[in-house]
Design brief:
Number of strands: 8
Shape: elongated
Strand order of the largest sheet: 1-8-7-6
Distance between the termini: 14 Å
Order of helices and strands: HHEEHEEHHHHHHEEHEEH
Length: 198
Amino acid sequence: MINDKGVNKNMNALKAKDLMVPLEKYPLVNSSASVLEAVTRLDESRRNTETGKQPYQAVLVADKHGRIIGKLGQLALLKAMEPKSRVSRDHDALERAGVSDAIMETALEHYRALHADLSESCAMAAEASVSSVMAPFEEHLDLNTPICEVVHKMLQWQTLSVLVTENEKPVGLVRLSDLCDELMRQMLKTTNNFTEEN
């Protein structure tokens, strides 16, 4: 049903909980896992995706106490491919030794040129620790956050997914892909209803 402003009333009633994927359905690895373990878990989850649902694009990361602390998504996977992430643990020591960021970047450019073999880079990335490349969860939304606010926050935070909490406890994730699917459904429904009324 469309109100006098042309807004679908059902859309106004939607909350973050209506679009979120519950945590128990999401692929999960421990922070000490390798990128290969995370990729394996993601691949398994993608093969078991329900028909009509968006495939998973990330793996959640839990600390040793089982608390969700971050995710390994597509950008984190690319980060694992970069030599900078493989030598970042040495960065502080090099900085203390007086090596400037400019010299470090030049050395990394040479490293990239010498190690441009994709299969070698993939093998090295696979061995990296998930905790060294994951994106930590820094923001979250309450279960009952209206969808319009979810849209605003995802734009503000420039994120592909956002953690959903109930009483500060993580319960799920709203993914950009699911949000956009719902927005497109609502746009088509609104357009069809408007056409029928005229």
